[in-house]
From TrEMBL, chain A:
<comment type="function">
    <text>Involved in beta-(1--&gt;2)glucan export. Transmembrane domains (TMD) form a pore in the inner membrane and the ATP-binding domain (NBD) is responsible for energy generation.</text>
</comment>
<keyword id="KW-0547">Nucleotide-binding</keyword>
<feature type="domain" description="ABC transporter">
    <location>
        <begin position="4"/>
        <end position="236"/>
    </location>
</feature>
<dbReference type="InterPro" id="IPR017871">
    <property type="entry name" value="ABC_transporter-like_CS"/>
</dbReference>
<dbReference type="GO" id="GO:0016887">
    <property type="term" value="F:ATP hydrolysis activity"/>
</dbReference>
<dbReference type="InterPro" id="IPR027417">
    <property type="entry name" value="P-loop_NTPase"/>
</dbReference>
<dbReference type="InterPro" id="IPR003593">
    <property type="entry name" value="AAA+_ATPase"/>
</dbReference>
<dbReference type="GO" id="GO:0005524">
    <property type="term" value="F:ATP binding"/>
</dbReference>
<protein>
    <submittedName>
        <fullName>ABC transporter ATP-binding protein</fullName>
    </submittedName>
</protein>
UniProtKB/TrEMBL annotation, chain B:
<keyword id="KW-0812">Transmembrane</keyword>
<feature type="transmembrane region" description="Helical">
    <location>
        <begin position="194"/>
        <end position="214"/>
    </location>
</feature>
<keyword id="KW-1003">Cell membrane</keyword>
<dbReference type="GO" id="GO:0022857">
    <property type="term" value="F:transmembrane transporter activity"/>
</dbReference>
<dbReference type="Pfam" id="PF02653">
    <property type="entry name" value="BPD_transp_2"/>
</dbReference>
<keyword id="KW-0472">Membrane</keyword>
<feature type="transmembrane region" description="Helical">
    <location>
        <begin position="38"/>
        <end position="57"/>
    </location>
</feature>
<feature type="transmembrane region" description="Helical">
    <location>
        <begin position="243"/>
        <end position="262"/>
    </location>
</feature>
<keyword id="KW-1133">Transmembrane helix</keyword>
Length: 516, 307
């Protein structure tokens, strides 16, 4: 008998139908992947199962009994646990304290938790120091705490909402292994993802969602990944060979280089970074004499394990942090320590790493966001000419395929992919523009949007721009870059040209075993 | 000469610190849960008045304290409804309650006590604990306090134990730091915050009642003179830690007591300046220390469950 049975689940938010008549069986001891683009309803489905939202129609049964959780507490009671995309850990408390939260009796007994943690460590290989504070842990370690938290109560069903989006390749491997361990012990796992490579490595069955509906549920043995992609996006992904290859990457083989190869020899230097040093406010050195040149018409990728200075490099190039030493020249103009406005004026477009915090103001409209840095352009005698701005915004949205019902809707109402397209539209429409920084430009985006972003970046390169691409996705770097430089502890430790990319070589350099 | 004044100075410093200790300790717990009760002063004032009234009417200071605590807790309940359930701006709500408290107690005081304002109100006697008297210098000052003063220190210990060793305390810390995470762990954010605010109300009630029935045995208009605000400052000064908050309260108490010591020592310092001292100290404390200690991340931010 199936562990969880969903029949006819429907969920609406206002006029928007997030889930439409979903019926699905989750068997005991299976890893069931939910695949779909952003906004397909994967997260909503998880939230219904976990009691965060309640369905407008339809019923659920768990272990044969009716299941209608009115909140997470009730779902937890029934043995349904969930690891959310955003971790639910209190940062200034210890691991043990976080694990006791919500399940301890009146007086805390830390010793009980520590004993239980030792059991789980032995069973699943989930090892972590109970006394460590959450804010001292890496992302992968925090996720491990989340999973331990879930497994403490010996659950029947473990739901993971896009757990690999934030992880490094080796951490992903470890996570998928844990999923299999959990399933081996007769528990069920629902894994939400839009990374196809993971599905083929871990799933027993996969359900594809699109626009709130189930397109198909397939057993993974002998399944065709390409047909899954077609079900997911609802069309053939044209010219998305590299995306697909990167996403699939089943055997860990190098994806084919994109067909749209740029100019073979880059032109003169458009970005010159020399001996850049940066110490963070706590005095910790983050960049340690980094030098790099990007020429016109070339995409240079920066690879590295997160926390090796690439974020800081992005902040400094955007003018959001001032370097401690070193020089940055863009197209002959000194921009070291300049304000973001001066850097923009020098012809630098920035797609920042943190889309929500830095790139846009979610509460403002799309049009306002598109012309955030150019308010003066539509100002006459100090008054804003909104209709002119609206028209200009409409044109830009059409050119860059930003899908929104109108330029006046709030940025927050757009999907992640469309928000990112809007940011790209704004930055690529700057005049003058000689250099583009794209930091983690596809983070959290679905396959269709990723394809659009790649095409935009390649087109910018073909127009003669120099592009610096900072990414934690090795496949992405290999698919898009003309040259990959590897950053390790604030320094570039090696460089590879297109054609000679290899995962092994880059991976070795990323972990500090430099061999150029 | 300073020797003979010392016991009096220490005694009055402690006595003046007690209401602030009560209020600050409760407020500290509430703020750890993410709710700032700017209405603390209003709660204390309402309690001071109600305690005086009930004690005068029944002849029992104990009933007075109970009535005061009850009224302060009711104000806290209203604060909780507005700031937790209705997600109103906590600062605005607090200011509103303070104005209401000042206006209503002044009005009722004039209506009820107007002609009888000289009548003494039944209050608590000092305990004169024999085993404390013999400690040199501070002994007599420690021993000659009312029972409520010792309760205030007890409440600091209790609050510290709650925060450190109970699951409710863990929930309080989680809710004040990351309510979303707490919610997902199955903790009711609203319930935890309600309890936190009510706890602050009970303790502010004890502090206010102490002022009228244990300290001065009378009620005067606006008798808290901003003690609630000092308590909020003490919480910041104390970095949201019960013991440091206690130290800050004692500092404010002794700073206030200087206005008795300095004239007794016949030092030529204007009394008006001394009256100002605790408030000046509070200002300096906040300016100098607020940057160092980190406040609970979700302080004053209403919680709304989202996907």
């Amino acid at each position: 008998m199936a562990l969880l049975e969903l029949s006819g689940l429907t969920k609406r938010f206002g006029a928007f139908t997030a889930l439409d008549d979903i019926s699905l069986l989750i068997e005991r001891g299976e890893v069931h992947c939910l695949l779909g683009e952003n906004g397909a309803g994967k997260s909503t489905l998880c939230n219904l199962v976990f009691g965060v939202h309640r369905p407008d129609a339809g019923t659920m049964t768990l272990g044969g009994e009716p299941f209608d959780p009115r909140g997470p507490a009730e779902a937890l009671q029934r043995g349904v646990v969930m690891v959310h995309q955003h971790f639910s850990l209190v940062p200034n408390m210890t691991v043990a304290e976080n694990l006791m939260l919500g399940r301890a009796s009146a007086v805390l007994k830390p010793q009980d938790i520590i004993v239980r943690m030792e059991q789980l460590a032995a069973e699943y290989g989930l090892e972590i120091d109970p006394e460590a504070r959450i804010d001292e842990l890496s992302v992968g370690e925090r996720q491990r705490v989340e999973i331990i938290k879930c497994l403490l109560g010996d659950p029947q069903l473990l739901v993971l909402d896009e757990p690999t989006a934030v992880l490094q390749p080796d951490e992903i491997d470890a996570l998928l292994a844990i999923c299999r361990q959990v399933a081996l012990r007769g528990k069920s796992v629902i894994l939400v993802t839009h990374k196809l490579g993971e599905i083929s490595r871990v799933a027993d069955r996969t359900t594809v969602l699109r626009q709130g509906r189930i397109i198909e549920t397939v057993a993974m043995e002998g399944a065709d990944i390409r047909s899954l992609v077609r079900s997911m996006v609802g069309r053939d992904v044209q010219s998305a060979g590299s995306v697909l290859a990167a996403a699939v990457d089943i055997e860990g083989k190098t994806p084919a280089k994109s067909s749209s190869v740029g100019p073979t020899s880059p032109g003169e230097a458009v970005l010159q970074i020399s001996d850049l040093v940066y110490r963070d406010p706590h005095g910790v050195p983050r960049l340690d004499g980094l030098s790099l040149t990007v020429g016109t018409g070339e995409i240079v990728g920066i690879a590295g394990v997160e926390g090796n200075g690439q974020s800081e490099l992005g902040l400094i190039l955007a003018g959001l942090a001032a370097p401690s030493a070193g020089a940055i020249v863009v197209g002959g103009t000194q921009v070291t320590g300049c304000t973001p406005q001066e850097i923009t004026d020098a012809g630098v477009g920035i797609v920042p790493e943190d889309r929500h915090a830095v790139a846009c103001i979610k509460e403002l409209s799309v049009a306002e966001n598109l012309y955030l840095g150019a308010i003066g352009k539509f100002s006459r005698f100090g008054l804003l000419d909104k209709s002119a701005r609206r028209k200009a915004a409409e044109t830009m949205m059409r050119d860059f395929d930003v899908r929104a019902s109108s330029p006046d809707v709030s940025m927050a109402s757009l999907s992640g992919g469309n928000q990112q397209k809007a940011v790209l539209a704004r930055e690529l429409s700057l005049d003058p523009l000689v250099f583009l920084l794209a930091a983690q430009p596809t983070r959290g985006l679905d396959v269709g949007a990723i394809e659009a972003v790649y095409n935009r970046i390649r087109a910018a390169r073909d127009d003669g721009l120099g592009v610096l691409l900072i990414s934690s996705e090795l496949e992405e770097l290999m698919a898009v870059s003309d040259r990959i430089a590897v950053i390790y502890r604030g320094k570039l430790v090696g460089e590879l040209a297109a054609g000679s990319f290899s995962r092994e070589a880059i991976g070795a350099m990323m972990s500090g075993h430099a061999h150029v | 000469m300073i020797d003979e004044h010392m016991p009096v100075f220490i005694g009055s410093g402690l006595r003046l610190a007690v209401p602030i200790i009560f209020a600050a300790t409760g407020e500290m717990l509430s703020e750890r849960a993410g709710v700032l009760n700017l209405s603390l002063d209003g709660m204390m004032l309402m309690s001071a008045f109600t305690a005086a009234l009930a004690s005068w009417a029944t002849g029992s200071p104990l009933i007075g304290v109970a009535a005061g605590v009850l009224v302060a807790t009711a104000v806290a309940g209203a604060q909780a409804v507005l700031s937790v359930t209705l997600r109103a701006n906590q600062l605005v709500v607090g200011i509103g309650f303070n104005i209401l408290a000042l206006g209503s107690t002044t009005f009722l005081y004039r209506e009820i006590f107007g002609p009888l304002s000289r009548d003494p109100i039944p209050g608590f006697a000092q305990l004169n604990l024999p085993w404390l008297v013999h400690i040199p210098v501070i002994g007599p000052a420690l021993a000659n306090q009312t029972g409520l003063a010792y309760v205030s220190i007890l409440m600091v210990v209790v609050t510290w134990l709650i925060l450190k060793y109970t699951s409710f305390g863990l929930a309080v810390r989680a809710v004040g730091e990351d309510p979303r995470a707490a919610d997902k762990a199955g903790i009711s954010v609203a319930r935890t915050r309600y309890l936190g605010v009510l706890y602050a109300g009970i303790l502010a009630g004890l502090g206010g009642a102490f002022m009228s029935v244990a300290d001065s045995n009378t009620f005067t208009e606006n008798m808290t003179k901003g003690a609630g605000y000092l308590a909020i400052t003490a919480v910041i000064f104390g970095g949201w830690n019960p013991w440091y908050t206690l130290a800050a309260c004692l500092l404010f108490g002794f700073a206030t007591a200087l206005q008795f010591l300095v004239p007794a020592l016949q030092l030529d310092v204007p009394v008006a300046l001394l009256l100002l001292l605790p408030y000046l100290l509070a200002l300096v404390a906040i300016a100098g220390f607020v940057g160092k200690s980190r406040q609970p991340s979700a302080l004053t931010i209403p919680f709304e469950r989202g996907g």
